[in-house]
Amino acid sequence: MGYSKLFVHFLLTILILGISLFSWSLPTQAASIDPFIRRYFEVSQPVEIPVDGKGNTRQFSGDDLTQGKALFEQNCVNCHVGGVTLQYPSLSLSLEALKGATPSRDNLNNLVAYFRNPVSYDGTDYNYWCREVSENWMSTDEAEKMAAYLLRAAAKVPYWGVQQNQQTPSF
């Protein structure tokens, strides 16, 4: 009898330990996704980001977009707070503005191409305000994650690319 009680306690201990380890691993995965990304980007599953103007897409996870956000904050946020372009407030990072550029910057390939060779909004001249993001500085994978972050923010974040004084209060 003593051994059977000991065996039951042993099994219960293993079961509790297993459940605890499993439950501890879940918040760790969820915690790796930035709270801003979780709140606004709707990333319970990987999201589709347009790759080109032909309807092709690529999936990006919440972790990918979190990495893209970190890259944006490290390299671009000084001039593009909340998607507003401080030097040219009328040319923001809103989806409408990205679509209107020549070439359009509303897909992954064109936005990464812009990072590599920043040109003016109409595509006629080099953009001296934006720094060229060379492959030595940021890998293609990193540039794509940052572009995916920008495109998802432009599509999902309220007031992304809108100047503070342009917002309409919702009282």
TrEMBL record:
InterPro entries recorded: Cyt_c-like_dom (IPR009056), Cyt_c-like_dom_sf (IPR036909), Cytochrom_C550 (IPR029490)
Classification via SUPFAM superfamilies: Cytochrome c
Domain Cytochrome c: 63-154
Pfam families, alphabetized: Cytochrom_C550
Keyword set, alphabetical order: Electron transport, Heme, Iron, Metal-binding, Photosynthesis, Transport
Name under which the protein is recorded: Photosystem II cytochrome PsbV2
Organism, as annotated: Planktothrix mougeotii LEGE 06226
Primary gene name: psbV2
